[in-house]
Amino acid sequence: MKWKNKLFLLTLIAIKLVDEPAPEVTIAQGTLIGKISSDGTFFEYLGIPYATTNSSTRFRAPGPPPSWTGLFKAVEESSSCPQNSFFGELTALRAKKPLQLFFDTQLLHLPCVESTIAEEEPVITDLPFNLYKNISKDIDVIYGSTSKEGFLLIAGDTNETLAERHGRYLFASDLRFSSDEEGFVTSKKVENFYFGDDVINMSQILKVAEFYTQLYFEIPAIFETECLIDKTQSKVYNYIFNYSGQRNFMKLRSGYYNEPGASHADDLFYLFRGSLIPPIFTKQDKKIIDYMTTLWTNFAKYGDPTPDWTNSVLKWEPSKKHNMKFLYIDDVPKIGSMPNNDAFHLWKNIYDKYRKTDI
Questions:
Q1: 175 contact partners, CB below 8 Å, separation of at least 6
Q2: What is the C-alpha radius of gyration for the chain, rounded to an integer number of angstroms?
Q3: Does 89 reside within a domain?
């Protein structure tokens, strides 16, 4: 029956008939448990005894504050002196509810910068932005992501880990706001876009994965594509890998193998064999392997994944400014426009306004 009691308590909290508890805090006297204020912005610890007294010490200095073992329930206002006090309520502690980071990272979408290895020629020796600043020749690139990158990031989530994030910033620390309030309002806008009025818990885990996919992979790839098109003459070929087959090892590892789409890095297993990857694939997997390796090889040799002389059924064109084109790699590949247009404009507006420039 314990779960029924907990469900009943959560229901009472939801309709504001029971106070929602604030975190335990320890002061010199002992440990307190408080409540969250009615507007949800403060942790309140009320009625904390700050001195000892009795009838024999009337009109004398009070004694030291009492101490206690266990939890002191600081959820009720104490009796106040009849006169007004310049110092206000001395027996209450109100701490602003912290607006912490939902997912803390300084830079989004960083590649693996290679170390110097004897007798090996490195390819990515610095961040791409720095490489482009230091070279005179424009370099064409293939740039893309998988459709469900976020599966990898939700693999270890539970109701407890998700509950800790609800009501906090939904951003990484490459955004700067003029105040906590401004950040909180913007955060709520993002939360409403992805989750509506739903509480962030395991019933919403696929929406959490979508949030991760777009914010930390898909949107940054589009932003960087726009930057390259705007600042250089480089051709950028964009793709979304959505195929799900026997070599989607990262999705299998995430625990979401039966969901459609491809997890973070699943596309690599259709381009590279690798000594640690078992040679397992179906006939359809083999078609995807042949298709992708042909595209990438043509790009490396000719600078074009689908040269005219190949008579490819699909012509993979580079993206243009205000006209991005994506190759969607799936059972039946297709050419399409930018994915998730509404999400792109949401994040575009936020980053245009709040992006840090000194990270």
A1: 183, 350, 351, 354, 355, 356
A2: 28
A3: no
Q: Which of 52, 73, 94 is the last residue of a domain?
A: 73
Report the CATH number at residue 257: 3.40.50.1820
22 within 8 A of 44, measured Cβ to Cβ: yes
DSSP state of 273: -
pLDDT digits 0-9 by tens, 160-172:
877 766 544 455 5
Range 78-84 average pLDDT: 51
Mention every residue, 6+ apart, whose C-beta is less than 8 A from residue 217: 109, 145, 146, 149, 150, 264
122: in domain: no
Dist. CA 110–CA 106, nearest whole Å: 10
Angle subtended at Cα 186 by Cα 183 and Cα 188, rounded to the nearest 5 degrees: 110
Q: 27 CB contacts (<8 Å, ≥6 apart)?
A: 48
Q: Would residue 98 be called left, alpha or beta, if left means φ above 0 and alpha means ψ between -120 and 50 degrees? A: beta
- The pair of structure tokens assigned to 33 is 């448990």
Largest CA distance in the chain: 103
On the CB side of 97, how many CA atoms lie within 13 Å of its CA?
A: 22
**Dist. CA 170–CA 352, nearest whole Å:** 17
Number of domains within the chain? 2
Q: What is the C-alpha to C-alpha distance for residues 193 and 171, in angstroms, rounded to an integer? A: 14
**Is residue 111 assigned to a domain?**
no
> b/e string for 276-293 if b means 16 or more Cβ within 10 A?
eeeeebeeebeebbebbe
Higher pLDDT: 170 or 234? It is: 234
Q: What are phi and psi of 195, to 5 degrees?
A: -120, -10
Interatomic CA distance for residues 39 and 53, integer angstroms: 35
Strand (E) or helix (H) holding 238: strand 236-241
Q: Indicate whether 123 belongs to any domain.
A: no
Domain of residue 240 covers: 128-354
Six-digit token string for 350:
């936020």
* Structure tokens that stand for 323 in this block: 């006209």
Run of H or E including 132: helix 128-133
Element (DSSP H or E) covering residue 36 = strand 35-36
Bridge partners, residue 21, by sequence: 35
User: pLDDT confidence of 114, banded at 50, 70, 90?
Assistant: confident
